[in-house]
From TrEMBL:
<protein>
    <recommendedName>
        <fullName>CCHC-type domain-containing protein</fullName>
    </recommendedName>
</protein>
<feature type="region of interest" description="Disordered">
    <location>
        <begin position="420"/>
        <end position="452"/>
    </location>
</feature>
<dbReference type="InterPro" id="IPR036875">
    <property type="entry name" value="Znf_CCHC_sf"/>
</dbReference>
<dbReference type="GO" id="GO:0008270">
    <property type="term" value="F:zinc ion binding"/>
</dbReference>
<dbReference type="GO" id="GO:0003676">
    <property type="term" value="F:nucleic acid binding"/>
</dbReference>
C-alpha cells in the first residue's frame, strides 16, 4: 500500500485506527502515516490497530471509497499505466482492510459487511481483467501485422481457441505452516508456496487475500493478530522471516553446510543439489567457485581423490564429473573373471589361458570382491572405510583371518591351501621321518650284534 496513492479521508482513517489523531495538511498526514507503517514493518510500533469509528459513519465512508474506485476502474485505459495500477491497487488494499474492520454488532450490520465484501471482490476481478494483457496466438499477431483484420475471417491463419486456466487457490494445496522449526523451516515453506503459486496460476494479490489458509497452530495466531498490518504478500513474507527465523540463522546454517557430507548410498547429483539448496537459503549467497570448492571437499573420499587433478569452476561441471565416476564405479562392481571352462565356449582357442604361476590366485578369485573388504559395500576400499575395522586378510580380503594365516596369501601354505608341515615330500631323498626310522633300526640292529 503506497501512502501517496491514498486520498485525504483514506489517510485520516489509516492514522486513526493506529491510535494517532491526524493533524496538519495532507502532506503532513501522509508523512505521519508513512512513519507509522515504517515502525510496524520494523517491529518498533507500540500502537495496536483498533477501529474507533462507529459502524454508520465508517460504512458511509467505505461506500464512498467503493463508488470512487468503481469510477476510477471504469475510466482506466488499456494498457494500464504502471502509475494507475499502483494507485488503484493501494486503494483496493486500504478498502479491503477497512471493510474487514467494520464494527458490525448485529445480524443486519454483518449482512452489510458481506455485501460490501462481495462488491469489492467483483471490483477486484474487473480490474484484474483490465490489467491482464490479452492472450493471442502467434498466428493472430501475424494476421493483424499484415492488415488481415479479424483472424477468424483470415484463410491463412484461422483463429485458435484460447482457454484461461482457472487458478487453484491455497486452500486446495494441502500446505500449511505451523511455526515449528522442528517440522519445517520458514524458508522451506516459503519456497514451496512460491513454487505452487506459479505452477497453479495464483497471483500475489490472490495469495495475500487467501493467506489465512496457509497457517496453522501458533503461526495462525501470529497471522490473525498481525494481518491488518500487512500491506501485501511481499510485506507478509518479510515479517514472517523476521519473526520465525532463528537468531544467528546465517552463521548456524553455514556451519551446517560445512558439516554436510555425502552419504555412502547418496547419489552425487542429489547431494550437490542439496548443498546448492542450502546455499540458496543464506541471506547472502557466496560466489559459485566458493560453493564448488566446499562441495568437492564434502564428497565421498574416493571421489575427492579422483577429482584432485581436475580444475572445476562450475556446479554443472562438478555434477558431470561425479556422474562419470559413479558410472565407472558401477562398471567395476559388475566385473566377473573370465571363464576357464573351454568345453562351454564357442571359440575355445580365443579363451583366456591362465599362467601356472597364478593358478592358485585364479582358483580363489571368486572369493575376492570389488567391494570394500571391511564392510563389504561398494564404492570405496578398506583404507577409506568409515565402519569399525573387522578381521580380514589384507592380501585377498578373506574373512576372519589375517595375512600370515591366510590359505591364499601366506607362505606357510602350499598351492592347495594345505599347511606345509603336513605335506609329504615326493622327492627321491628320504623324508625326515624316514631318516628317523632308519636310524632307530640301525641302533637296534647294532645292539643285537653286541649282545651276540
Amino acid at each position: 500500500m503506497d501512502v501517496n496513492c491514498l486520498k485525504s479521508t483514506e489517510v485520516e482513517y489509516e492514522i486513526k485506527i493506529r491510535g494517532v489523531t491526524p493533524s496538519g495538511d495532507l502532506d503532513f498526514k501522509r508523512k505521519t502515516l508513512r512513519g507509522l507503517l515504517t515502525q510496524e514493518r520494523g517491529n518498533r510500533s507500540f500502537f495496536t490497530i483498533v477501529n474507533p469509528l462507529v459502524f454508520s459513519e465508517d460504512e458511509k465512508d467505505a461506500r464512498e471509497s467503493l463508488a470512487d474506485l468503481k469510477q476510477a476502474i471504469n475510466e482506466v485505459v488499456v494498457p494500464v499505466a504502471a502509475s494507475a495500477r499502483k494507485r488503484i491497487c493501494s486503494r483496493l488494499t486500504h478498502l479491503s482492510g477497512r471493510i474487514h474492520r467494520l464494527n458490525a454488532e448485529n445480524v443486519d450490520q454483518r449482512g452489510i459487511v458481506v455485501a460490501l465484501t462481495e462488491e469489492l471482490l467483483i471490483l477486484e476481478a474487473d480490474f484484474e481483467e483490465k490489467v491482464k494483457p490479452p492472450t493471442s496466438t502467434p498466428h493472430d499477431q501475424q494476421a493483424f501485422q499484415f492488415g488481415m483484420g479479424d483472424p477468424q475471417l483470415s484463410p491463412i491463419s484461422p483463429r485458435r481457441s484460447t482457454t484461461t486456466v482457472k487458478p487453484i487457490l491455497p486452500y486446495k494445496w494441502g500446505l500449511s505452516f505451523t511455526g515449528s522449526n522442528s517440522q519445517e523451516s520458514v524458508i522451506s515453506f516459503l519456497e514451496k508456496v512460491e513454487s505452487l503459486r506459479v505452477s497453479r496460476g495464483v497471483s500475489k494479490q490472490d495469495l495475500f487475500t487467501s493467506a489465512g489458509d496457509l497457517f496453522k497452530a501458533q503461526a495462525w495466531t501470529w497471522y490473525n493478530i498481525n494481518r491488518s498490518r500487512f500491506t501485501d504478500w511481499d510485506d507478509l513474507v518479510q515479517k514472517l522471516r523476521q519473526d520465525f527465523l532463528p537468531y544467528n540463522y546465517d552463521d548456524d546454517l553455514l556451519e551446517e553446510i560445512n558439516h554436510r557430507t555425502q552419504g555412502h548410498d547418496e547419489k552425487s547429483a542429489l547431494f550437490i543439489c542439496a548443498m546448492e539448496g542450502l546455499y540458496n537459503r543464506l541471506s547472502k549467497k557466496p560466489d559459485e567457485q566458493t560453493i564448488v570448492n566446499r562441495i568437492r571437499r564434502n564428497l565421498l573420499p574416493q571421489y575427492v581423490a579422483q577429482l584432485a587433478l581436475h580444475e572445476i569452476n562450475t556446479i554443472s561441471e562438478l555434477t558431470r564429473l561425479t556422474k562419470k565416476l559413479e558410472e565407472s564405479s558401477s562398471w567395476s562392481t559388475r566385473y566377473k573373471p573370465p571363464s576357464s571352462r573351454k568345453s562351454q565356449l564357442l571359440e575355445p582357442d580365443l579363451s583366456f589361458y591362465p599362467s601356472t604361476s597364478f593358478k592358485s590366485s585364479l582358483r580363489n578369485i571368486s572369493t575376492i570382491s570389488t567391494n570394500c573388504w571391511n564392510c563389504l559395500k561398494p564404492g570405496h576400499n578398506y583404507q577409506s572405510c568409515r565402519f569399525p575395522r573387522r578381521m580380514f586378510c589384507y592380501g585377498c580380503g578373506a574373512r576372519n583371518t589375517i595375512k600370515s594365516k591366510c590359505k591364499n596369501c601366506s607362505k606357510n601354505f602350499n598351492t592347495d591351501g594345505k599347511p606345509l608341515d603336513l605335506v609329504v615330500s615326493t622327492s627321491k631323498d628320504p623324508a625326515p621321518s624316514s631318516f628317523k626310522k632308519t636310524n632307530d633300526a640301525s641302533k637296534i640292529k647294532g645292539k643285537s650284534k653286541q649282545s651276540q
